[in-house]
Amino acid sequence: MKSSEIRQKFLDFFASKGHTVVASSSLVPHEDPTLLFTNAGMNQFKDVFLGFDKRPYTRAASSQKCVRAGGKHNDLENVGYTARHHTFFEMLGNFSFGDYFKRDAIGYAWELLTEVYKLPTEKLWVTVYAEDDEAYDIWTKDIGVPAERVIRIGDNKGARYASDNFWMMGDTGPCGPCTEIFYDHGADIWGGPPGSPEEDGDRYIEIWNN
Question: Is residue 146 part of a domain?
């Protein structure tokens, strides 16, 4: 499948779920002195999440052009050393502004990956924040992912809430537990599942973050 098809299927899927498709914003953010380059799809919605702006829609989807070459999300030192890091890329994203929450977000992700992109379910692993029992139950009881493929990740970055599965925009502001989906490339690729000593290998690759 070509990248253009992946992008279009993503946008079409979320449009069918009531999302407004929003064009990518500029790589150089407007009216945001905190960023040199746009590094995530949520950048253009930052003021919405902070309550400073209101849009005529509560659901959005976008394919955002991003550069990660400095700051908090700096991938530059990893480019050329792994199969998954790039300076420039497009980030596909779906956003809810006070509309749906975990159950729908997880359901949409799983439906798109398994029914639209046709990824085999047995290849997909999931991580949740260690204390997020709600997300864990949605994955194991509602979606039906086997418990052995749903991994709880705690505060693994040296401080409270400093975790691969606790998202935060900065030292202050919106934050909370997140859940990620990984694709298992198979035993012929070196690497271990998330949370293991070999997690930096290329076998298990993150493909989704809610």
Answer: yes
